[in-house]
TrEMBL record:
It holds the Pfam family Esterase. InterPro entries: AB_hydrolase_fold (IPR029058), Esterase-like (IPR000801), Mycobacterial_A85_antigen (IPR050583). GO terms for molecular function: acyltransferase activity, transferring groups other than amino-acyl groups; hydrolase activity. It comes from Rhodococcus koreensis. The chain crosses the membrane at residues 14-34, 41-59, 71-90, 102-124. The lineage of its organism: Bacteria, Bacillati, Actinomycetota, Actinomycetes, Mycobacteriales. This is S-formylglutathione hydrolase FrmB. Keywords: Hydrolase, Membrane, Transmembrane, Transmembrane helix.
Length: 434
């Protein structure tokens, strides 16, 4: 069934088929002949679903505001349609009167929900295949105990590929490790990190590989980079072209929970900056055999993670002199500037400016730093900010590039951005020559 796992749910015929089946399910739910069903049940259920959806919209967008940017209206529409189908189920079963009709009604609701989920996924491209939608992982996992001790024989050099020859018996693909990276210095309660180890890491002698720290968005989790972000696939394909060489990628937790937004700073929301600047590098150097030179370290991320990567590059340039900002925001934000100041900085504008990349780049020069800003060509909400911070970074003496790839604010852009910039990143980190 491997072929089924690889079938796309964001392109090709399947999403259209699922949407069509959902439409047929909707027709079934509306097609009962009982007069009371058409004149009372359907209007009442529709009204309830509309009210609940509107309340959800108001709570998320106006009251709680857990996300810094508004959710697309189409998402609420599809949520409302799914809710409408669920509420209709009981009266539709009563109107059908037979067991066969009841089974048909349950299947119809499931079809509508599947179509709604397909349409929502189409917006974000979070699950590109059937396999990823059901949690299948297109890579092998390894446990910390399986890594063994550090090898005495190591390969070094800049570029590393000039000194490296892949030995016989080396794995053809990398492996993924889940590990707890404690907030020893920061006290930050981070979720487990997901770590990609390229094929060359399992060779003896072992090359001292560079490290790329990656961050997910908000809402999000480290696992997102391996589903919608296709990180393992991208790294395995790069390694296959370079004798098993690729960066060690540590997808660290930069938020603490699925919906938390600690602004990638040290504050009452969590000491994320210290966690990423001290705890993560310290743990990696203590537990994995890597190149410890800061020139071989980079940080990157998507959306919130992109913003955070620029924050780390400007606040801690000695730790992360290289960054990859994919669809990042203009500044750390909780949705509006005043709320950001109040909740993240105690209302102190000066405290905000001390860590805000735009302010730091206006006041300082970064001649040893380099990075790439990647943005979706259709990402109208984020593109102006990306262009602004790119220009600010350039004015601050950074060696930077601005790149647009097709798409909006979705994993289609984020996965493509990482793949596109891998050659530049590998050269910058000393992994391969020009």
């Amino acid at each position: 069934m491997e072929w089924l796992s690889d079938v796309s749910v964001i392109s090709g015929p399947l999403p259209w088929i699922l949407t069509g089946i959902g439409a047929l399910g909707g027709v079934w739910l509306l097609a009962a002949r009982a007069p009371w069903y058409r004149t009372k049940a359907v209007p009442i259920c529709l009204a309830v679903s509309v009210v609940v959806t509107v309340v959800l919209y108001v709570m998320v967008e106006k009251v709680l505001r857990p996300f810094p940017d508004p959710i697309e209206m189409s998402i609420y529409v599809w949520i409302g349609l799914g809710l409408f189908a669920i509420i209709l189920l009981v009266p539709r079963i009563r109107a059908g009167r037979t067991v066969k009709a009841a089974v048909g009604s349950v299947l119809a609701v499931l079809a509508v929900l599947l179509a709604s989920a397909t349409q929502i996924n189409w917006v974000f491209d979070a699950y590109p295949t059937v396999g990823t939608a059901f949690g299948a992982e297109p890579f092998d996992r390894v446990q910390m105990n399986d890594l063994g001790s550090s090898t005495e024989n190591v390969v070094t050099g800049t570029p590393l590929d000039a000194s490296w020859t892949a030995p016989p018996g080396m794995p053809s693909e990398g492996r993924v490790l889940t590990a707890a990276v404690p907030g020893t210095a920061s006290g930050f309660a981070a979720r487990d990190a997901e770590i990609y180890l390229p094929p060359a890491y399992f060779a003896n002698p072992r090359p001292l590989l560079p490290v790329l720290v990656m961050l997910a968005g908000q809402p999000g989790s480290p696992e997102d980079w391996f589903a919608g972000g296709k990180l393992a696939t991208t790294m395995n394909e790069f390694a296959a072209k370079h004798d098993g060489l690729a960066p060690i990628v540590v997808v660290a937790d930069g938020t603490g929970s699925q919906i938390a937004n600690p602004l990638c700073t040290d504050s009452k929301l969590g000491n994320v900056a210290t966690y990423l600047a001290k705890d993560v590098p310290s743990w990696v150097k203590s537990n994995l055999q890597v190149n410890p030179d800061p020139k071989a370290w980079a940080i990157g991320g998507l959306s919130y993670g992109g913003t955070c990567s620029l924050q780390m590059a400007t606040n801690y340039p000695d730790v992360y002199p290289t960054f990859l900002d994919i669809s990042g925001q203009e500044a750390p934000t909780l949705g509006d500037h005043q709320r950001t100041l109040d909740d993240g900085f105690g209302g102190d504008e000066a405290a905000f400016k001390r860590v805000n990349p735009l302010d730091l780049m206006a006041a300082n020069k970064y001649p040893d730093s380099a990075g790439v800003f990647v943005i979706g060509s259709d990402d109208d909400a984020y593109k102006p900010g990306a262009q602004k911070v790119y220009q600010a970074a350039k004015n601050a003496g950074m060696d930077v590039q601005y790149v647009e790839v097709p798409g909006g604010h979705s994993f289609a852009v984020w996965s493509a951005g990482l793949e596109k910039e891998m050659p530049w990143l590998a050269q910058r980190l000393g992994l391969i020559g020009s």
